[in-house]
Specification:
By secondary structure, the chain is α/β, with parallel strands linked by helices. It is built from 3 helices and 6 strands, in the order ββαβαβαββ. It has a single domain (3-132), classed as 6-pyruvoyl tetrahydropterin synthase/QueD (Tetrahydropterin Synthase, Chain A, 2-Layer Sandwich).
């Protein structure tokens, strides 16, 4: 028997994709929704897989501090210099800040904090999402 719970976390972010031929090469924004799936074989002594409030405090707090209302940029994006000079919030990623890469960043953070995460979906629009699960 397996139990699974999912926490949705909403946030807004801007990005652009380098080395991309299309509209997404330009600066634009999204109202993203991350869905964090947690799973366990048994429930704890409270009858839960995990407390939604604990996940909200930790993972949502990290997303709010790093991604919400920030520009997500690839490490070699020349936009970083401007963002630095103007004091605009930004988050540097090793690769293009695609929905796939953002989902992986959230997954890796949640896992590093000991949450029993099995997958993260990032809804970039109301009809498009990417999922990361190792």
């Amino acid at each position: 028997m397996t139990y699974k719970v999912t926490k949705q976390i909403e946030f807004c972010y801007g990005h652009r994709l380098r080395n991309y031929d299309g509209k997404c090469q330009h600066i634009h924004g999204h109202n993203g929704v991350a869905e964090v799936d947690l799973r366990d074989e048994e429930l704890d002594d409270r009858g839960m897989v995990y407390d939604f409030g604990d996940l909200k405090d930790d993972v949502k707090g990290w997303i709010d501090d790093n991604f919400d209302h920030a520009m997500l940029v690839r490490h070699d994006d020349p936009l970083i210099e401007y963002l630095e000079e103007t004091g605009e919030p930004y988050y540097v990623m090793d690769e293009n800040p695609t929905a796939e890469a953002i989902a992986r960043e959230i997954y890796e953070y949640a896992e590093s904090q000991g949450h029993p995460v099995v997958a993260v979906r990032l809804w970039e629009t109301g009809s498009s999402y990417a999922t990361y699960s190792p």
